[in-house]
Amino acid sequence: MTDSCIVITGAAGALGQAVAQHFLSAGHKLGLLDHDAQRLRTVFGSPAKAVLHAADVTSADSVSAVITQVLQAHGRIDGLVHVAGGFEMGEGVHQITRASWDRMMNLNAWSFVNLTQAVVPVMQRQGGGRIVAVSAAAAREGAALKGAYAASKSALQRLVESLSREVRAQGIAVNSVAPTTLDTSANRAAMPDADRTAWVPLDVAAQAIAFLATPAGAAVHGQHVQLGSA
């Protein structure tokens, strides 16, 4: 299993780093993608079993080029962990601008379609693979001033369910994790007085993702695993 290759998007972010370190510690080969190439190099340096690539997950050309480079380096892709996404407080639903709507849908829903268009054919040729998307607890229901964000994460979960039903017979497991609040330094700084007892530690989230992204989670299909309590 340690010869497998896992592609991680948003790898330079807090959760992406935790997931990458989990897999690096287990000896996996990695393709680490982020929109910020300099931050990738600052965070990871030059790990022996990982290749680092800048990528725009909303661009088909960018994703296709990077996936080709990962295949050239490692020869296969066994897992995709799609951490990259976006969050912003927005307008009320009756005030949402097209720009806000498109930004959230592109980052949180279209990016998943874009990545799977490049990765699924690889997994089909290999006879299997694992795909894990990072959704959010906000996908369960609407919330004030989060209409576009909640809609985009809900769309992501419907895409996960649909793709799962389309490819599970080919040995490809597709699932998502839906964290509540992640225990990051940024969230602690933004919410210094919050009760953190229900927050999700990054290493715990990484372990849950790793279970779904490796053969250990091969029997799980089309599920949204909630992390933390609402």
Automatic annotation (TrEMBL):
Q: Kindly indicate whether the keyword NADP belongs to this entry.
A: yes
Which keywords does the record carry? Answer: NADP, Oxidoreductase
MF GO annotations: oxidoreductase activity
| A Pfam family reported for this protein in Swiss-Prot or TrEMBL | adh_short
InterPro entries for this protein: KR_dom (IPR057326), NAD(P)-bd_dom_sf (IPR036291), Sc_DH/Rdtase_CS (IPR020904), SDR_fam (IPR002347)
Keyword NADP tagged: yes
Identify the enzyme class.
oxidoreductase
Give the EC number. 1.-.-.-
* Residues annotated as transmembrane: none
SMART domains registered for this protein in UniProt: PKS_KR
The residues covered by the Ketoreductase domain are 4-180
Spell out the family assignment given in the record's similarity comment: Belongs to the short-chain dehydrogenases/reductases (SDR) family.
Q: What is this protein called?
A: SDR family oxidoreductase
